[in-house]
Amino acid sequence: MIQLQNVTKIYSNGKTSCPALDKVSFEIGKGEFIGIIGKSGSGKSTLLNILSGVDHPSAGSVEINGTLVSALSSKKLTKWRAANIGIVFQAFHLIPTLTLMENVMLPMEFNKKGSRKKRRLRAAELLESVGLAERMNHFPDHVSGGEKQRAAIARSLANDPPIIMADEPTGNLDSENAFHIFSLFESLVDEGKTVIIVTHDQDLAIRADRTLQVKDGRIMNPLSRERELS
User: Fold this and answer.
1) Quick check: is 218 in a domain?
2) Structural domain includes residue 199
3) How do 223-224 and 67-68 pair as beta strands?
4) What is the pLDDT, as a whole number, of residue 230?
5) Is residue 80 packed enough to be buried (19+ CB in 10 Å), middle (13-18) or exposed (0-12)?
6) What are 134-191's pLDDT values in tens digits?
7) Measuring CA to CA, which residue among 84, 89, 99 is closest to residue 162?
8) CATH assignment of the domain containing 187
9) Are 102 and 110 in contact (CB under 8 A)?
10) pLDDT-derived band of residue 124, with 50, 70 and 90 as boundaries?
11) Whole-angstrom Cα distance, residue 67 to residue 75?
12) Which of 57, 59, 157, 226 has its CA at 20 to 30 Å from residue 71's CA atom?
């Protein structure tokens, strides 16, 4: 489903260059739950940005479901990403002047998906599925951090993308909420979606099907759940 070949990313300010990724290659299958771990500055967030098409590699290729994503123009990439990728940000990025329901409806409106009535119905169903049925008309400032993160997950599912990517989705949460968020991701995998998360929490990452460790811009030996439990 996802193939990276010799992906390199170099940031430059004109005078100095900083390599963030160095010839990264791996594959991810449909319906896999992948954890990406590594220390701050290791390149894991850069890797997620390139996987999601938010950023372009300096060299190498990214192919997802037969589409060479790394070669798409910005305009085509935006349209492709809206239909194929759901992104969950660490800082939530909910619009404070919109209710949780309106935040979840927003991707559907950008993608011109369905009538407004159908968008509201789907947003309500998604918020109910993450336990926010009684909070859907609340504004982000009036709910807890865990509820904001669940709303962000609901929003990432609005256009029913086959792939969900999350950057430190539990970084701002206590252990109980973090456990619940991971359980939500596991349920999405059970539904057939591919889930990729960046996390610093190895105790939670081990719950993924496979763990990719990033160090100095390179992928170390992948760890699988089966191998760690053996």
Assistant:
1) yes
2) yes
3) unpaired
4) 33
5) middle
6) 999 999 999 999 899 999 999 999 999 999 999 988 887 788 888 888 888 999 999 9
7) 84
8) 3.40.50.300
9) no
10) very high
11) 15
12) 157
